[in-house]
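Exam revision sheet. Question 4 asks you to relate a sequence to its structure. Input first:
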Amino acid sequence: MTETKSPAELIELLDDIGTCMFTTVDSEGRLVSRPMGIAHVDEDHRLWFFTRVESEKVDDVVGEGRVNLAFVDDKTWVSVAGTASVSTDEQKKSELWQLGAKAYFADGPEDSDAALICVEPDSAQYWEGPGSAAALVKMAAAAVSDDRPTMGDQGRVDL
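Answer key, structure tokens:
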């Protein structure tokens, strides 16, 4: 089944999941992914992440900045495509400061190695399924009945 979620519903899903695989394109054109926790999602649907100024992902973002964020939990998968930029604005770092950032930057928002990556999303695709155990039961039932299993809702959200 295909359904359409509002941007607000999608953001709620992302807030609930919290961590994503953050994929960039490196200088050699290779896709590189690493786990990142969201620091904040603002009213314009931009996703903010704390990172180190001296990190490969910052080098990757400084170029074209095309990124993909892949979120997964037990029954929900979301893929967000967008463009990222880097900021070292101390006011913005102070505004978004949270426990996760505190664990990495001992000197607080004023830490010279602390930066923010802001992802301006273009679109997102999502799939909400029945969960792993229920999915197995549905697939097994469909296999013996020649019916196609109903595996959840999917859709696209333009942000």
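Marking note for examiners. The radius of gyration is 18 Å.
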